[in-house]
């Protein structure tokens, strides 16, 4: 997936800043040991929670149990924000992705996502896939896998120079 638009937002960028290519933003998401997913509660309040992301074909995937708040929020409103970055001020790249979370049921894709999860952290994220249903050993039961297709994203470089790259997808 290539952005239809990639540009520096000079309102939030220092002189000499350079555009962050979309491939670098995707790589940052893929390398994140932890990211945040922000959903919207039925009453309009935001809900943020950490999660372990995996990236495949420029899309972000995460899983959650059906009793979790983010699951219920996504059922009511699938719009989400995914954030990956760190708390360093003088270095690094933070990436935020706006998109829609859609449940994944394709067995082949679920197996690929499970394979990607097996390499996360210390290997504790083991998912078993059977006929479109995913089981998480660490969660102790069935989980839903969601795919976030980016629609709009931002890459924020920190340090000298600071910059903001805007992506339309």
UniProtKB/TrEMBL annotation:
Keyword Oxidoreductase: yes
Keywords: Oxidoreductase
Stored InterPro entries: F420H2_bilvrd_red/Heme_oxyg, Pyridox_Oxase_N, Split_barrel_FMN-bd
Gene3D superfamilies per the UniProt record, alphabetical: Electron Transport, Fmn-binding Protein, Chain A
Domain (Pyridoxamine 5'-phosphate oxidase N-terminal) ranges: 26-153
GO cellular component term of the entry, any: cytosol
A Gene Ontology molecular function term of the record: oxidoreductase activity, acting on the CH-CH group of donors
Superkingdom: Bacteria
Entry-linked SUPFAM superfamilies: FMN-binding split barrel (SSF50475)
UniProt cross-references to PANTHER family, sorted A to Z: HEME OXYGENASE HI_0854-RELATED (PTHR35176), PYRIDOXAMINE 5'-PHOSPHATE OXIDASE-RELATED FMN-BINDING (PTHR35176:SF4)
Protein name: Pyridoxamine 5'-phosphate oxidase family protein
Species name: Micromonospora orduensis
């Amino acid at each position: 997936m290539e952005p239809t638009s990639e540009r520096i937002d000079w309102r939030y960028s220092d002189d000499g800043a350079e555009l962050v290519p979309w491939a670098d933003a995707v790589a940052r998401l893929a390398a994140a040991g932890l990211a945040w997913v922000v959903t919207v509660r039925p009453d309009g309040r935001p809900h943020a929670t950490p999660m372990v992301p995996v990236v495949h074909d420029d899309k972000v995937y995460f899983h959650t149990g059906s009793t979790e708040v983010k699951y219920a929020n996504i059922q009511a409103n699938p719009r989400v924000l995914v954030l990956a970055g760190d708390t360093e001020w003088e270095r690094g790249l933070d990436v935020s992705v706006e998109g829609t979370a859609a449940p994944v049921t394709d067995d082949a894709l679920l197996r690929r996502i499970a394979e990607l999860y097996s390499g996360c952290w210390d290997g504790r994220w083991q998912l078993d896939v059977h006929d479109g249903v995913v089981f998480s050993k660490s969660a102790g039961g069935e989980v839903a896998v969601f795919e976030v297709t980016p629609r709009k994203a931002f890459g924020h470089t920190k340090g000298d120079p600071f910059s903001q790259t805007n992506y339309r997808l």
